[in-house]
Amino acid sequence: MLSAIMWASIASSSLVLGALVGIFKDIPVKVSSFIMAFGTGVLIGAATFELLSGAVEEGGIFYPSLGFLSGATLFMVIEAFISKKGGQKRKRSKGNPAGHSGMAIFVGSIMDAIPESIIIGVSVLGNKSVSLVIVIAVFISNFPEGLSSSIGLKKDGYHKGKIIFLWLVVMILATISSLIGYILIDPGSTVVITMIGAFAAGAIFAMVSSTMLPEAFEEGGPIVGYISALGLLTALILTYFE
């Protein structure tokens, strides 16, 4: 239980770190796009090597396939809703464009953080130890989210202290979600465990394809393909030694 809480806190702490950078520092667009590209590769690797492959290995092909498509579908529906409210660029690590509400990005970030943290709790429950690949992937992907939302909230007139407080609340919610995943989900139910893992993998694939990777290429150019490949290789190496 303590392990689930600790690792979820570490993974979600990058939201606060990104928020602090967004409030107090300006980082070059190229640098942020390279971080985004590397994080995309790690996320795809985590979804493939840790979540989807593990789900198929444990539960066959039917339930993981169903979970995978359900995750991708739900992300698409939520993304469409958040986009209408001005939060479609919550994964972006540059200034908040006109018409894209910082609060909408913040709400979208909560929707992302909760299922990610539940997966961390489930991974601890199922494997008796945390998946470092998943923790690293979530940590990297959360950074630009906290960064872009804080830039938007600052432009919307929110006080710096209030912005930091909001992200601390998200971090606490993420930690609680991991604990819920650890306590409430039955580790003996192969169907439930495999569907949750595959569900998260589908949501991750849909997310990186529609949010992170497009901006990384837009801002960083062709080299982001190579950097993404390095991220994927990093996930593979971590999985191998894990």
From TrEMBL:
It is found in: Cell membrane. GO terms for cellular component: plasma membrane. The chain crosses the membrane at residues 6-24, 31-49, 61-82, 165-185, 191-211, 223-241. Signal peptide: none annotated. Coiled coil: none annotated. It is a multi-pass membrane protein. Pfam families: Zip. Keywords: Cell membrane, Membrane, Transmembrane, Transmembrane helix, Zinc. It comes from the Bacteria. GO terms for molecular function: zinc ion transmembrane transporter activity. InterPro entries: ZIP. Its main location: membrane. Belongs to the ZIP transporter (TC 2.A.5) family. This is ZIP family metal transporter. It comes from Halalkalibacter suaedae.
